[in-house]
Design goal:
With 435 residues, this protein is α+β, with helices and mostly antiparallel strands. It is built from eleven helices and 17 strands. The chain has a six-stranded mixed barrel with strand order 3-16-13-15-14-17. It has a six-stranded mixed sheet with strand order 5-9-4-10-11-12. α2 crosses α4 and α8 crosses α9. Pfam families: 3D, MltA.
Length: 435
């Protein structure tokens, strides 16, 4: 997940909604009249058990045959970096089927990433900031995107290179800046009593860890969970920055981490992740799968949404099992923003685990879905995007993006692009070949 912008926690061997983490649906708190809100419409269920409404089409994409990976061992379960996972040299970039339009999008995204890429500490162990300086300097002058990547980079495969990819998008839902009939689900900003504590100064084994809570007398205690918040725990403590028409739609907007509110006057308000209540998250899609509530053909974001709407009481209870709650802020300027604090680009930006892919680096994915194959730039992270060769592709906004991202699961091969000379410098850190 990112601390701002597109937070997907989506996202594990299942489509994004099954891996929904740190999300919340913001049910109307006690004491607020729903009025004529269409918040929890009951929908008829056919004899097959499938809801007959609220099931927008899912685009599965065009089947494709991935490139074979270089024979190598899988990453050890305890690997915490690309170097620890092992690597082998990948194929020449000239041999990769890189589409010219995709190369241009990737070049534009790479240019945006360069200032940060050259300064960030690379947790993968593969590169250092200065390694990227020549490529970044050349990117500003490059005219032929394909030639730029061919001339400035070489490929490396992390461990066995077996890639798994899902998709995310920027949702657009009905919302209003003020409460009115039909818009009665509050979208909260950061509460005034929410405190974030960096544990780094307390112990070396806590370095980098943070916790959130609130001060109660002389004690620091956990912040209210989602049920308590929905029942009014934030009254007088958190601003309501807008109101949503449908808590199910808001639930999935929170899964994504940012989105657009379509206002009654036709305008658009963009919101993004601002903070979270510090509670551990539970992915409701995984719960539904484990309980047998998701049937074949329903395993998509759209199918989950239909289930939640078909039985409002059970849907509300199910969503409340995720104690995590997300707070938003209004976004202005370009966006949505990824983990680098930079705008992510449709069909060009991908989320990855920064322990295995340097944030800002190009990645070539050859997958069993043609639309998701090609050149991407790692500009984001996700709470469920963990491990070597795990990716979450960004598809932008709109119904097409929603339909494709909501059902995307793709497998294949991943090759990371690193500056020329990287492999020679790394020397003998290669992963052993598979028997």
């Amino acid at each position: 997940m990112r601390a701002q912008g597109v937070w997907r926690v989506s996202v594990i061997g299942l489509p994004l909604f099954l891996l929904a983490s740190a999300c919340s649906n913001a049910i109307v708190p006690a004491g607020i009249d729903r009025g004529t809100s269409p918040t929890w419409p009951r929908v008829p269920v056919a004899s097959t058990g499938q809801p007959t409404r609220y099931t927008p089409g899912v685009k599965l994409g065009t089947p494709a045959t991935p490139m074979p990976a270089i024979p190598a061992a899988a990453a050890p379960a305890d690997a915490t970096s690309a170097v620890a996972a092992g690597w082998v040299a990948g194929p020449p970039i000239a041999s990769l089927p890189i589409d010219a339009a995709a190369a241009r999008r990737a070049l534009a995204a790479f240019r945006l990433s360069c200032p940060s890429l050259q300064k960030r500490a690379d947790a993968t162990g593969l590169t250092k900031g200065p390694d990227w300086v020549p490529a970044c300097a050349a990117a500003g002058q490059a005219g032929d995107a394909n030639a730029f990547f061919r001339d400035r980079f070489e490929t490396v495969q992390i461990a066995d290179g077996r890639a798994f990819a899902t998709g995310y998008y920027e949702p657009e839902i009905a919302g209003s800046r003020s409460r009115r009939a039909g818009y009665e689900t509050p979208i909260y900003g950061v509460p005034s009593d929410l405190v974030e504590v960096d544990l780094t100064p307390f112990a070396t084994d806590l370095a980098g860890r943070k916790i959130r809570g609130r001060v109660e007398g002389s004690r620091f205690v956990p912040y209210p969970d989602r049920t308590a918040i929905e029942e009014g725990a934030l009254t007088g403590k958190a601003p309501i920055i807008a109101w949503a028409a449908d808590p199910v739609e808001l639930f999935f907007l929170q899964v994504q981490g940012s989105g657009r509110l379509r206002l009654p006057d036709g305008g658009v308000m963009r919101i993004g992740y601002a903070s979270q209540n510090g509670r551990a998250y539970t992915g409701i899609g995984a719960l539904m799968r484990d309980r047998g509530l998701v049937q074949p053909g329903q395993a998509s974001m759209q199918g989950i949404m239909a289930y939640l709407r078909a039985d409002p009481d059970r849907g509300r209870a199910l969503m409340r099992e995720n104690k995590s709650y997300v707070f938003f802020r209004e976004l202005t300027g370009p966006g949505p923003l990824g983990a680098m604090g930079l705008p992510v680009t449709a069909n060009a930006s991908v989320a990855a685990d920064p322990r295995f892919v340097p944030l800002g680096a190009p990645v070539f994915l050859s997958l069993d879905r043609a639309e998701a194959s090609g050149l991407w730039v790692a500009q984001d992270t996700g709470g469920a995007i963990k491990g070597a060769n795990r990716f979450d592709t960004f598809w932008g906004a709109g119904e097409d993006a929603r339909a494709f991202a909501g059902g995307l699961t793709a497998r294949g091969t991943a090759f990371l692009l690193v500056p020329r000379g990287t492999l020679a410098r790394l020397g003998n850190g290669r992963a052993p070949a598979r028997p």
